[in-house]
Design brief:
The protein is of the alpha/beta class. The protein folds into two domains: 140 residues, Rossmann fold; 65 residues, ACT domain (Alpha-Beta Plaits), CATH 3.30.70.260. Helices cover 27% and strands 28% of the residues. It has six helices and 14 strands. Strands 3-2-1-4-7-13-14 form a seven-stranded mixed β-sheet. It has a four-stranded antiparallel β-sheet with strand order 9-10-8-11. A three-stranded antiparallel β-sheet has the order 5-6-12, covered by helices on one side. Strand 13 and strand 14 form a beta hairpin. Helix 1 crosses helix 2. The mean pLDDT is 98. It binds ribulose-5-phosphate (5RP). The site of ribulose-5-phosphate (5RP) has 17 residues, from helix 2 and helix 4.
């Protein structure tokens, strides 16, 4: 099976976690695009979606799915999103699509986080994928220096990318994140950091992993 076929498989499998009659939280990326396309088949059985990016909003609306503002809901039963890496504890690196801030906001509203990913995303230790960090533009150089002195990583501004919130993305290479919760907590306190792409406080509850043998369900 190709990687795209595995993404389609988990996108379809995620439908079983969508609660009929409720609003569903929707992430961003190519795997989520497969989920959105599958969700269109049950659009008359949900109350709508809260989306984590302009791109996902446009795709949902193109399918005729109502998109609600995050401020219109008190909570969500479930948030469904992809990941750039996920470890065996459900901790993730996210933000390859630059949508990490809104992704964390929608995940925060949700009672459970269902991660959908192809098998290549499962890792023992987070950090081979460059860690995305959304920063206020004037803080980019200072946050990059701080990463180097605190964790030894090399941070570079992602060329030509401005987030949906008008900020920059730093991609930090050379990290081995053995304690995701500690790194997330520390980096969150640096002035100018909007969101760090480690999802430890908002880790996955479940991961639907697309493998050549079918969908494996990992529970954390
Ligand atoms: C976007 C994300 C995505 O979930 C992540 O990049 C995975 O994307 P894809 O499903 O295309 O591999 O965090 O900001």
């Amino acid at each position: 099976m190709t990687q795209d076929e595995l993404k389609a498989l988990v996108g379809q499998a995620a439908l079983q976690y969508v609660v009929p009659g409720a609003v569903v939280g929707v992430g961003t990326g190519s795997t989520v695009n497969c989920f959105i396309d599958a969700l269109a088949m049950m659009k008359d059985r949900i109350a709508g979606a809260v989306s984590s990016s302009v791109k996902s909003t446009e795709r949902l609306q193109a399918h005729g799915i109502t998109v609600l503002d995050a401020n219109q809901v008190d909570s969500l039963p479930v948030y469904i999103d992809g990941a750039d890496e996920i470890d065996h504890r459900g901790y993730m690196i996210k933000g390859g699509g630059a949508a990490l801030t809104r992704e964390k906001i929608v995940a925060d509203l949700a009672a459970s986080f269902v991660c959908i990913a192809d098998a290549s995303k499962l890792v023992d230790t987070l950090g081979a994928f460059p860690l995305p960090v959304e920063v206020i533009p004037m803080a980019a150089a200072q946050v990059a220096r701080r990463f180097h002195s605190a964790f030894g990583g090399q941070a570079r501004v992602r060329e030509g990318v401005v987030t949906d919130n008008g900020n920059l993305i730093l991609d930090v290479r050379g990290l081995k994140i053995s304690d995701p919760l500690a790194l997330e907590t520390e980096v969150n306190q640096w002035p100018g950091v909007v969101t760090v792409g480690v999802f430890a406080r908002h880790k996955a509850s479940v991961c639907l992993l697309g493998t050549p043998d079918g969908v494996k369900t990992l529970r954390f």
